[in-house]
Amino acid sequence: MWLTILKILIALLAISGICILCGQVLYTLMPVKKSTLVQKFIAGLLFEMAVYEVLYIFMVFRYVSLGKLTFCWMLVTAVTAAAGLWISVKKNIQRPYAVKKKFKKYLSDINIYTIVMLILICAYTIMTLLYQQEFQDDAFFAGIASTSYTTDTIIRYSPYTGGEITVLRYAKYVFSGYPVMIASLARVTLLRPIVVMHIVIPVLMIGAHYILCYMFAQMVFRSRHKSEIAMIILCIINMNSLYVINEMSTSAWMFVGAWYGKSILSNVCIISLWYYLIKTNDSSVSGYLGPKGWIIIFIADMAAVLSSTFACIAVLAVSFVITLFYFVKKRSWFNICGWAITIMPMMIIMLMTYLLRYKALF
Question: Which of 55, 173, 302, 362 has the lowest CB atom count within 10 Å?
Fold first, then answer.
């Protein structure tokens, strides 16, 4: 038991560190002069999900082994993280006193609101881990992950019968690599797929959700204290989402199944897409990304598809509404062009999904 707990803690720390380093590369490419560790973590997490999805799509129809897919993913991750480490070391060597001063300032800004916010988020995370429920899809996700993990395959054997199948059997879900990613993470972290699915992923996604909401609050209120108060209120509301469980709201999805694909889509991917669309299109906000922000929007789109094929509709709707708003406000066709280019993979995946489902019927 204690060895498993130690593995979980090491996995969480390692994944967080790698995401921060990958995010460092993305923020350097865009480029953004001022960025925090949490911003880099979110960007890196989306990057890792997007890379896995791209590799998965290219390999699933060729029935490549899980080991090869995991190796390619880890290779890209290692190269990107190494580049991020080199950039970070180079920057910190050039200005060590500035980094030290910034860290001291952050500690001095901690107040009662910060402490209450962190306590509530930790309490919410523990409650979520203890209260997770099993849905019908839980058996599907766990089955696909465990089967891929055991047989070293990607959607090759049925998790229910053990018989050999083709991708047409699960045409509705074949473009979502999330269940297979659970198996890859299990291979890398030396944990069982069910442990990764019900402990590692919920902790990461709950943390990402609250970080995104905090980033959003800072963008709206432009005050750290007001943002922290907003987060305290949000956390209390989320804690009471159990009472609207029958409505399956966004907060209810996260409370009863933070591992669930649609929960990750609604609580992490869509919020991040909304955040980066505003940062890319609105020059009046702090940390304006500009045209290069479409890079991370494309990454957020692909990360959303990894979590659920429903993302093809959700991403299309959310991004279209926000882009249309800024098109009317700024009268710039560049935003429409950026949206059209980044949304193209969504349209192709949606079309291919319907074609595969149609073919599976005959």
Answer: 362
Q: Which of 1-15, 122-136, 214-228, 236-250 has the lowest mean pLDDT?
A: 236-250
Instruction: For residues 97 and 195, give the distance between their C-alpha atoms in angstroms, rounded to a whole number.
Output: 41
> In this predicted structure, what is the pLDDT of residue 13?
92
Place of tokens 């997770």: 132
Return the half-sphere exposure (C-beta side, CA atoms, 13 A cut-off) of residue 62. Answer: 10
Report which of 240, 356, 307 is spatially closest to residue 53, judged by C-alpha positions: 307
Task: Determine the distance from the C-alpha atom of residue 224 to the mean position of all C-alpha atoms in its chain, rounded to a whole number.
Answer: 24
Instruction: Report whether 145 contacts 154 (CB < 8 A).
Output: no
DSSP letters spanning 93-152: HH-HHHHHHHHHHHHHT--HHHHHHHHHHHHHHHHHHHH----HHHHHHHHHHHHHHHHT
Is 89 buried (19+), middle (13-18) or exposed (0-12) by CB count in 10 A? exposed
Per-residue b or e along 337-358, where b marks 16 or more CB atoms closer than 10 Å to that residue's CB: ebbeebbebbeebbebbeebee
In terms of Cα–Cα distance, which of 299, 336, 304, 300 is closest to 320?
336
pTM of the model: 0.89
Residue 220 CB coordination number (10 Å)? 13
Asked if 154 contacts 65 with a C-beta cutoff of 8 angstroms, the reply is yes
Spatial contact of 53 and 303, defined as CB atoms under 8 Å apart: yes
Greater model confidence, 55 or 89 = 55
Looking up tokens 């990461």 gives 204
With a CB cutoff of 8 Å and minimum separation 6, the contacts of 199 are 8, 129
Residue from 261, 248, 264 nearest 206 by CA: 264
Instruction: Give the HSE-up count for residue 85: Cα atoms under 13 Å, Cβ half-sphere.
Output: 8
The chain-wide mean pLDDT, for the chain, equals 81
pLDDT computed for residue 101 by the predictor: 62
